[in-house]
Amino acid sequence: MPLVLPVEPVACNGSPTGGIWTEGAALAVPAGRLCARADAWLRPGPDGGEGHRRGPHGLVDWILHPDSASVTIPGWAPLLPGRARPRLADVNNALNTWSGTVVWLPVQDGTRHGRGGPEAHLVAMIGFRLDHAYLDRPNAACAASVPTTCIVGTVVSLPQPSPSPTCSPQGQPTPPVSATPTVT
Questions:
Q1: Tens digit of pLDDT for each residue in 128-145?
Q2: How confident is the model over 55-110, as pLDDT tens digits?
């Protein structure tokens, strides 16, 4: 999936929480309209996830058909700048087609401004059983003192290196190369 998580969990405003990703932990990951500083999205298109149109339309395509996109880990990957608010509902609906399944989310340990715009340094993948996405409207399920936007689910696999993080059309993740979880 093209939603990028930081190595260490962050709050909605993007500040570190001091926590760690914990296997088996059910949690709400800040993301979406109200938490734009907490998440990043890989840029679809020829310079980003291969096989998809550029921009927010491509982001929806990538979420619905992740088996046709690939990224290299470790490596730098272009990010989608800004948020296309009219399309965020479509992104939210696309993510929710994966509710109840394990998705692989890339993990980054830093960003930079590359030739084509912002880029993230991808270092690993987290296996995440997605319960529901609440990206376009605040929801109390996001477990904040004030309802915010997030994805809700359970970490099922700690950050692991993976050379080709994709899912099959049936939503089954491609197993990571390493069977031993490593935290970087």
A1: 999 999 998 899 999 767
A2: 556 788 888 887 666 788 899 998 886 555 557 889 899 999 999 999 999 999 99
What is d(CA 90, CA 69) in angstroms, rounded to the nearest whole number? 19
In this structure, which amino acid lies at residue 98? Answer: W
* pLDDT of 165 higher than 50: no
| Ramachandran area for residue 82 (φ above 0: left; ψ -120 to 50: alpha; else beta) | left
Q: Please report, as a single letter, which amino acid is at residue 55.
A: G
AA identity, residue 147? P
Instruction: Give yes or no for a cis peptide into 169 (omega within 30° of 0).
Output: no
- 40 closest CA partner among 8, 91, 5: 5
Rg over CA atoms, the chain: 15
3-class secondary-structure state, position 121: strand
Q: From CA 127, how far away is CA 112, in angstroms rounded?
A: 25
Contact 69, 50 (CB under 8 A): yes
